[in-house]
Amino acid sequence: MTEAPYQRIVADVRERIGDGRLRPGDRLPSTRDLAKRHGVALATATKALTLLQQQGVVVSKPRSGTVVAGTVAVPAAVHRGAVAQGDLVRAAIEIADAEGLAALSMRGVAAKLGVPTMSTYRYVESKDQLVLLMADAAYGELGGQEPESAAWREQLERVGRTLWALYRRHPWLAHVTPLTRPLPLPNLLRHGEAMLRALAGRGLDAHARLDVQIMLYSHIQGLAVQLEAEAQAQAATGLTEDDWMDVHGPGLGAIASSGRYPHFTAMMTSFGEGGYELDLDRIFELGLRTLLDGLAVSVFA
């Protein structure tokens, strides 16, 4: 996961503010100087300064240029003179939630906390370990002991919607836990345990129970990976979903009018001027309902 060039500039400025090299009112280097110092294009340096302004770290003043804000928020960890592992995890989650997992770096986390980068390694061995701690903390935010008295379907619906809510809250989370490479995350296992509890005593052997659990999880996680993927695509191209369709709509229209795909053409025509609105929440519920209907017929009938 490579740190974007503009993020390196943001992290550098925040670190300089955190350790006192830049103080409120101090003027930042010009956009051209920042671009030269970091070996990036002017547009990249401009993007970094814009993000710092949006975060309230710097302000633009007439005839003064860009200066450090007079009241930069100082994390509680700095007031204590030290950070704890939990501070790192929370700061990292906030970065990943706002900017994606690709934007996460130890330097950026340290800058957010206002501490030297090397001090973070007292609490985690590496960025990879930090990501695992982030994922486990995120999975632990929702869910808990499921009532065993509830029907199997109600229990599975509750677990499925809880996981979907967590992925909605943290779009990066689905990318951390690939289906084929399970990770030792206790809080993720809590959700798996709730699924297995719903399936217990239903006449399924161990292989069948795990197959069902994997099938349900793959539907949720597989759909959830699109959440951050769309955000990354928009950041990379600068195009929203509507903008993307404006660009590629004519090409799709040409395919539809070719006569080679009559069912596709009929479907696209039926949408009319309003077009089709992709709603991942609707598709999640459709998939969950369809899978549970199938279990009701093929397994629990």
UniProtKB/TrEMBL annotation:
Gene3D superfamilies assigned to the protein according to its UniProt record, in alphabetical order: Homeodomain-like, Tetracycline Repressor, domain 2, Winged helix-like DNA-binding domain superfamily/Winged helix DNA-binding domain
Residue stretches making up the HTH gntR-type domain: 3-71
CDD domains for this protein: WHTH_GntR (cd07377)
Entry keyword set: DNA-binding, Transcription, Transcription regulation
Domain HTH tetR-type: 82-142
Chain residues forming the annotated DNA-binding region: 105-124
Name of a matching Pfam family: TetR_C_1
SUPFAM superfamilies: Homeodomain-like, Tetracyclin repressor-like, C-terminal domain, Winged helix' DNA-binding domain
Keyword Transcription part of the UniProt annotation: yes
Designated name of the protein: GntR family transcriptional regulator
